Amino acid sequence: MDYTVIVILEILRAISWLVILAAGLAIIFGMMKVINFAHGEFLMLGGYITIMSHNAGVPLWISIAVLAPLTVGLFGILVERLVIRHLYGRIIDSLLATWGLSLLMIGGVTMVFGNTVQGVSTPLGSIAIGAYQVPGYNLLLIVVAALLMAAIWALLRYTSAGLIARATMQNPDMAETLGVRTSWVYMATFGLGSAVTGLAGGLLAPLTGVAPSMGVNFVAQSFITVITGGASMIAGTLSAGTLLGTISQGVTFATGPVWGDAALLLAALVLLRVLPQGITGRIFRKSL
Amino acid sequence: MSEPTPILTTEKLVMQFGGVTAVDHVDFSLNPGELRCLLGPNGAGKSTFFKCLTGQLKPTSGTIRLNGQDITGWETHAIVNLGVGIKTQVPNLFDGLSAYENIRMAARRRHLKPMAKERAEEMLEKCGITHLARREVGLLAHGQRQLVELATVLAPAPALVLLDEPAAGMTGAERDRLADLVLETARRAAVVVVEHDMAFIRRIAKFTTVFNRGAIFREAMIGDIMTDRAVQEIYLGKQADVAA
Amino acid sequence: MTLSRRSFLQASAALTTTLAAPSILHAKTDTIRIGGLHDLSGAIDSSGVPMDKALRYAVAELNAAGGLLGREVEAVTYDPQSNMSLYSQYATQLALKDKVDVVFGGITSASRETIRPIFHRYKTLYFYNCLYEGGVCDRNEFTLGTTPAQTIAQLVPHVMGLWGKKVYIVAADYNYGHISAAWVKRYVEENGGELVETEFFPLDTTQFGSSISKIQGAKPDIVYSLLVGTAHLGFYRQWAASGMKGEIPIASSSFGGAGTENVMLTPEEGNGMVVATGYFPSVDNAANASFKAGIKTFYGNDAPILGEISEVTYESVKMWAQAVSETGATERMGIIQELEKGKSYDMPAGKVAIDPDTHHTIRDVYIAELKDQEMVIQKTFNAVQPSDTQMVCNLSKDPDSNKQFEISL
Amino acid sequence: METSLHRDAGFWVMIAIGLALLVAGPLVWDLFQIMQITQYVVLSVYVLSLSYIWGFGGILSFGQAAFFGLGAYTFSVASINMGETTFPFLLAFGLPALFGAALGYFMFYGKLSDVYMGVVTMVVTLIFWKLINHTAGPEYAIGDARLGGFNGIPSVPVLNVPGKPEAWLDPGQMFQVFMAILVILYIVLRTLIASDFGRVSLGIRENETRAALLGYDVRRHKVIVFAIGAGIAGMAGGMWATYQTFVDPNVFSLEMSAKALIWTMAGGVGTLAGPIIAVVVLQYLSLKLGEMHVLNNNFILGGIMMVLVLLVPKGGLPTLRDALVALKARTPAALQR
């Protein structure tokens, strides 16, 4: 019985983690059809900012929730202005440029911060469930994933910025004729996506070791979640995260981590074969 | 006198998109060598019907027969290989290649290499675009592109030709040439033309089918159609809708 | 490593000139040239950089003492960028173009197995300085790091005496992890213990929640970790976050070899872990004191974090240099025969001797407890034999051997 | 626009350069240079696999490494078991080509769109990478060949003379064989592209609907092109394994896939010579960077890539060609004045 609760909690944690990981990428890909291959390095940067500022004496929560998103968001805007802006509509070029960016960031962070830094401990202690104990931080991840999705949904649904964003996403030319500066919308979108990724990196920092080359461990999962999710940001990320998270974590419990990873990839393959436009290409089409 | 075997028939053809029925139980029949025009207001379902015929869309239900053979749900290329030539509403050409290469590739499907070359040159001349042969088609004017596309459609000498809005974007002279070409083609093949351009229709049309709301509304000779009050109303009604 | 704007500009200028005239790199001829191959960028640069620094320090120390045989020692070093094809290219380059007398380097077993046959073929003496899974049998190579049997044989009985008999292994899913896990199993069983379960993790695993729950369910007395790399640090972090710190103790013979893991974990996470390797900075002897002081002075703020892999790199250069001084030449076979005499050398890690049959080292092994990011040595075992490699390799009988044996238990 | 192959000067120049290197190379280069250039040749074969399907078939694959790796492992396992290398080398082409055909069938008959296709190829590569990394245990062996997981398979045999397992090629001979393969591959691909099959591929790249409307079976055609590309990539993998005498899971890495994309991009999509030049230039650069200790090499390489994409978006060769054309066009005007 306790074990069942643990398994369910772990699965929820895995789903939340995929959602948090992929949200920033989903915003950027969903709105702009730009594949940001440096996504993993944006995460890494968020992690580094969190750790560096925490080690410098900033309270952990401020590092995670404010400094990491803010810094990475600003960095994202800088990248958009300098690079991405020139590459709209050129998926492959933007992919290659961001690949270059990822190498640049790995090298840059190594030079500036070094590759051996002290991490931060996971806060919030542990919670006992019968004979088992789980980190309280896991529950936080689940809450944050839910809040994040709700916040993005509210932003798109109820604010004028969201309306402009949706209009631009639907039909950029039309939006332009209505007086929307699409280039600003794109810049803001890239900034927001980067900030969300920065937050994810901040949340990741107290969970694992942080090193300049860590991004590669996350980039594939994020992509697969976004792509299998399909066109709509929230419903897509949520449904894909739920499906893939459940499958991979379920298999991990049953066999081991290797087959868990493989099951995630296989599930994604089968899904794309059945639903070539991703989950929200067929179902939940009208959702955000 | 017995009825000739039709080259193309549809039975109870239905195409639905979600809750919308774009083609609604259409029974259609075309005889070999016949030239048929399809008319109807915007959104009447002509183009959807057309796409079902060419395999670009898979009908929800009903059957399509070509020379008696059931081709419902076939892939486009397989239908084409039964001797069907198709011109789509939006011109579909290999934009990066020259007009000549476009036409030659079409001809090569039927003919051996030397014949294909000859046939391509013949088609260029017939369509009056020999001077455009070496030009990249992506850079041509809309009307010129229409002619190039027509040449690619006719190059393999298909027995059934389906043309969706061939006159769109053409100048007066181009349109006249097109009308002649269509009439000449109709001497050897069955032709279905979807068109809005009334001047063009008047020049070529004989027996005509009118679509409305996804179904066949009238089938009659063009003269009768032009004077049919009900047909005028659906066109006007549509315009009234648009105005409102 | 930090980078000021000025050093960036200097670096860019240097880059431009070197790109324009790469040949000036190889101008000197009357020096003794030695090669170094360590990853200075890419995924495993955190291991490569300290090793490269140890190598350069050792060379500087030799030159400060007047060089070797009256000639200056020059280090030709390349950065293979964690890329196997660059490893094989640079190895060929060092052997054929630079014609160095000896090469120190290689980090992962994959990189070693890429370059080892090249040095064997082109008769260039080679030192490999990482702890690894054991089994290399090649008279052209000297392997100075510890092998699983050396550390595990000491650590397993030690922690079983401290904590109990039920052991749960978590290991990295590659050769080193698999072979080490087999050794742990053997020593656990030899000492009357019970192996509950062995779980393997791909090297890029970062989430360990499900395994931690499984361990909680199995209730072992000891968790024995053979995890490797930065991603796997997540295990210790999530272990502490699950409140398991202080519930079940962790022992490891893979942790701390590079010397970097212990400073990447916070004291709360790391304290109490018991680990075993061939060197800790806290080893107490004169050679180590002067090594630590010297490298600190040489690099200042950029001094590397010391661990087995960097100390052994330093050791390898010193050992080779002593053999050169003894034989009076850099000739390869002379050095090999000199080292095969099995002399004992005083090194920062204690007494080190070459086992002539395997070309591995007979060396001291230390068990330490992690306390506030420092390794506090608890027990020292003298002259531990590389018994695993000795099972499969005998170069005295088969001097032409040129492969890595699979050690199966 | 439509020029016959035999009248294309570039075609003959490339062949001449290839043959000249093939004959003269081993005479003038030292061993190190031969090894070095052999590597460029192998990677050139690899990059052609992508340049062909992308530039002349409009198929973008993020997973060429899947075939490259499959070829490398196929060759290694087969040659270790058989003790000779000729049949394994053919297998290194055949098996990936078959697998490419199967994967292509899965994708093209499933009507996957561009981006999604890219992701499927990437995911397949990742699956290979994960699984092969998992084969460290002794239970993972095919015949005499232990797969070895992360550490890979050591002692992969050197290529031997067909029918004579004892007659290993020396580095000079291996270079000549590989160079011959590259030259032949170049001729075959150029001929294929100029053939009717190739024209149809180009047509499909330009406009799939029109190709189908002309009666060409687009899906089957794409599967064939994709499978050819997969076979070439696999063959390159086999060459790589025997050149390195070693193979590890990095052959399946995302980086390996990305390199093919980068080289093709940098050299110019829609050319074959451009990507080959890009291989040589970029590999040489990364080799030279590793000899220096100035800045972190990832930093420099990444920067170069970004600048390339921003400043030379069409790729090296087409940009150069355009510049030459512009220059030619300007010269007469200047003379008239």
TrEMBL record, chain A:
Family under the similarity heading: Belongs to the binding-protein-dependent transport system permease family. LivHM subfamily.
A molecular function (GO) term: transmembrane transporter activity
Protein name, entry field: Branched-chain amino acid ABC transporter permease
InterPro entries for the chain: ABC_transp_permease, BCAA_transport_permease
Keyword DNA repair: no
Membrane-spanning residues: 12-38, 58-79, 91-114, 134-156, 184-205, 258-276
Keywords: Amino-acid transport, Cell membrane, Membrane, Transmembrane, Transmembrane helix, Transport
Gene Ontology BP terms: amino acid transport
Superkingdom, natural source: Bacteria
Keyword Transport: yes
Topological type in the membrane: Multi-pass membrane protein
Cellular compartment(s): Cell membrane
One cellular-component annotation, GO: plasma membrane
UniProtKB/TrEMBL annotation, chain B:
Domain of life: Bacteria
Record keyword Transmembrane present: no
A Pfam family: ABC_tran
Stretches assigned to the ABC transporter domain: 8-238
SMART domains the UniProt entry points to: AAA
Signal peptide location: none
A GO term for molecular function: ATP binding
GO CC annotation, single: plasma membrane
Gene3D superfamilies: P-loop containing nucleotide triphosphate hydrolases
Keywords: ATP-binding, Nucleotide-binding, Transport
InterPro entries: AAA+_ATPase, ABC_AA/LPS_Transport, ABC_transporter-like_ATP-bd, ABC_transporter-like_CS, P-loop_NTPase
Protein name as annotated: ATP-binding cassette domain-containing protein
Lineage: Bacteria, Pseudomonadati, Pseudomonadota, Alphaproteobacteria, Rhodobacterales
Keyword Transport tagged: yes
SUPFAM superfamilies: P-loop containing nucleoside triphosphate hydrolases
Automatic annotation (TrEMBL), chain C:
Pfam families: Peripla_BP_5
Coiled coil: none
PROSITE patterns referenced in this protein's UniProt entry, alphabetically: TAT
Signal peptide extent: none
Recorded superkingdom: Bacteria
Gene3D superfamilies: 3.40.50.2300
PANTHER family xrefs: ALIPHATIC AMIDASE EXPRESSION-REGULATING PROTEIN (PTHR47628:SF1), PTHR47628
Protein name: Transporter substrate-binding protein
Organism: Pseudooceanicola albus
TrEMBL record, chain D:
UniProt-listed InterPro entries: ABC_transp_permease, LivM-like
Cellular component GO terms, alphabetical: plasma membrane
A GO MF term: branched-chain amino acid transmembrane transporter activity
Keyword Membrane among record annotations: yes
Topology of the protein relative to the lipid bilayer: Multi-pass membrane protein
TM annotation in the entry: 12-29, 41-67, 87-108, 115-132, 174-193, 223-241, 261-282, 294-312
Keyword list, A-Z: Cell membrane, Membrane, Transmembrane, Transmembrane helix
Pfam short name (any one): BPD_transp_2
Compartments where located: Cell membrane
Signal sequence, renumbered to the chain: none
Keyword presence, Cell membrane: yes
Highest taxon, organism lineage: Bacteria
Record protein name field: Urea ABC transporter
Species annotation: Pseudooceanicola albus
